[in-house]
Design a protein that fits this description.
By secondary structure, the chain is of the alpha+beta class. It has helices at 4-14, 62-72, 107-134, 145-163, 170-177, 180-190, 226-234, 243-255, 266-293, 304-315, 322-329; strands at residues 24-28, 36-41, 46-51, 79-83, 88-92, 195-197, 206-209, 212-215, 222-224. Helices cover 47% and strands 12% of the residues. The strands form three sheets. It has a five-stranded antiparallel beta sheet with strand order 1-2-3-5-4, with helices on both faces. The protein has a two-stranded antiparallel sheet with strand order 6-9.
Length: 333
């Protein structure tokens, strides 16, 4: 691991900073990522420095995806330099105000920021393949039946199997985890037309800069369903939206332009959207259990109750998940 002094020296070289100019570097805590983030303040500029490793292939894709976003006009931090050998990225500092920071503001204040975020991700959904054609690279594995099944199993293993380990009948849970309904859901979603999706489109990955939303942490970009990105934002466990606020934002997104991948009818859209919300919330709950209990990042466990409440709400609208819903209802809030 490079020392902070080494990072400062490399930054001085990259930005031709005189040796007598002050350079300050401060670590930034960033969610569940294993990458290291720093805010570096030069004499007349502030920037973000990211240190990544090669343990996860997606880390190496960040700069290439930023080029795709730039080609599409999707707002994201500008990349200044990329040292692939050292795993270092110097990028634009867009400030510290993410969408999550506005969670306690009235909806009238937050609404335009959510709309701006949806406009940006819609641009990605509409034109992502066009951008990829200009800056081709090997994408992460697409959302296929196997990946949807992985998300489901991740929930059963790390949320029910770890977080709620002593609060249910293991045999009953194992039976439910193996139910054919999960395979049917996975096959249904994997048969749907794919666009390029952010993959982790939630409030802490959306910066508000000069009144516009900018996307960050997009290294998980892959082919998937636009409905999944929408569900990630509107059922975000970090920020509780009301049912009317979610419905308003879905209508706003659909009003940006109808596409074949969204479904031929609103009923068709709603069905896939609900199933994607189930998938996303199961993935999030699995992640909270894993990060909190395996990785020792206990703060993530505090997000289990709101995520579980949302999952119960969504599952109640999916008739084929009635048995699953009954099990969720038996868990403590």
């Amino acid at each position: 691991m490079l020392s902070q002094d080494s990072l400062i020296r490399q930054t001085r070289v990259r930005f031709a900073t005189p040796s007598d100019d002050a350079v300050d570097i401060v670590p930034i805590e960033k969610g569940g990522s294993e990458r290291k983030f720093y805010r570096v303040r030069l004499e007349h500029q502030s920037l973000i420095l990211v240190k990544y490793n090669d343990q996860r292939e997606e880390n190496r894709h960040y700069v290439r995806i930023a080029e795709v976003f730039d080609a599409l006009g999707v707002r994201a931090p500008k990349i200044y330099f990329h040292d692939e050998a050292e795993g270092l990225i110097w990028m634009e500092d867009l400030g510290e105000r993410d969408l999550w920071s506005y969670r306690d503001e009235p909806w009238a204040v937050r609404r335009p920021y959510y709309q701006s975020a949806l406009e940006e991700v819609c641009r990605l959904h509409e034109r992502g393949w066009e951008g990829l054609a200009k800056f081709p690279f090997t994408l992460q594995i697409e959302f296929n039946a196997a990946l949807y099944r992985w998300e489901q199993k991740y929930f059963f293993e790390n949320c029910l199997g770890r977080y709620f380990e002593n609060l249910h009948d293991p045999d009953k849970v194992a039976h439910l985890a193996a139910a054919p309904v999960w395979e049917r859901i996975s096959e249904k979603l994997s048969a749907w037309p794919r666009v390029l999706v952010h993959r982790d489109f939630q409030s802490q990955n959306i910066l508000i800069h000069e009144e516009h939303a900018h996307l960050i942490d997009f290294q998980g970009l892959r082919p998937g369903l636009a409905h999944y990105d929408l569900a990630s934002l509107l059922y975000d466990p970090y920020v509780r939206l009301t049912a009317s606020e979610r419905a308003e934002m879905v209508d706003f997104y659909l009003g940006l332009g109808r596409r074949s991948d969204l479904g031929e009818t609103r009923a068709e859209f709603d069905e896939i959207y609900r199933l994607c919300a189930v998938q996303r919330l199961m993935q999030a709950l699995g992640a909270y259990g894993f990060l909190g209990l395996v990785k020792g990042r206990e703060a993530f466990l505090g997000h289990v109750p709101p995520a579980l409440a949302s999952l119960r709400e969504v599952v109640a609208g999916v008739p084929e998940l009635e048995e699953f819903g009954a099990m969720l209802a038996g868990l403590p809030a």
